[in-house]
Amino acid sequence: MAYGIAAFGVGSLATALLAAAAMACGSGSGAPPSPAAPAEPAPAPPAPEAAGASDSTRKANLIFSTRCATCHGPAGTGDGPGSVALDPKPRDFHDAAWQASVSDEHLRKIILEGGGAVGKSLLMPPNPDLVGQPEVVTALVLHVRSLRSH
Predict the structure, then answer these.
(1) Percent of the chain with pLDDT over 90
(2) Is pLDDT at 28 greater than 50 in this prediction?
(3) How many CB atoms neighbour CB 130 within 10 A?
(4) What is the Cα–Cα distance from 40 to 45, expressed in whole angstroms?
(5) Nearest-10 Cα torsion for 94, 99, 105, 111
(6) Closest Cα to residue 63, out of 147, 149, 139, 131?
(7) Is residue 107 exposed (0-12), middle (13-18) or buried (19+ Cβ within 10 Å)?
(8) For the chain, which domains are there?
(9) How far is CA 84 from CA 78, 79, 119, in A?
(10) Sign of CA dihedral 44, 145, 61, 47
(11) What is the largest CA-CA distance in the chain?
């Protein structure tokens, strides 16, 4: 009599494989396994919002931390993890001379339409989902402005 996969059925085979894997992963001492140490610490949670911050400001801060900071860095210094392979490097928003050289309208345009819309890198993506949210775009512009070094 043959005892192949067909004899046990796929469900039984999967159950047997899972059981074998569970036994192979055990410590063999009968004691519950000790938790593994994390490879690296979890990232710090975002800074708490200022009391009374508007929904637009909260959304803009979330967008900056999840989209912009990838390349511009969490502090806006152009050193995000995505900046490593980029040439030219992302803008350092702390640069007072650059801040003085661009208008709020220029910042709105690059936020909404991406780098190519203002003659900059095509690798800076547009944010078309923000077109109908001018208050969030304004809050993003204010956030970029707040990073200016004095």
Answers:
(1) 64
(2) no
(3) 19
(4) 15
(5) -30
(6) 139
(7) buried
(8) 55-146 (1.10.760)
(9) 10, 8, 21
(10) positive
(11) 85
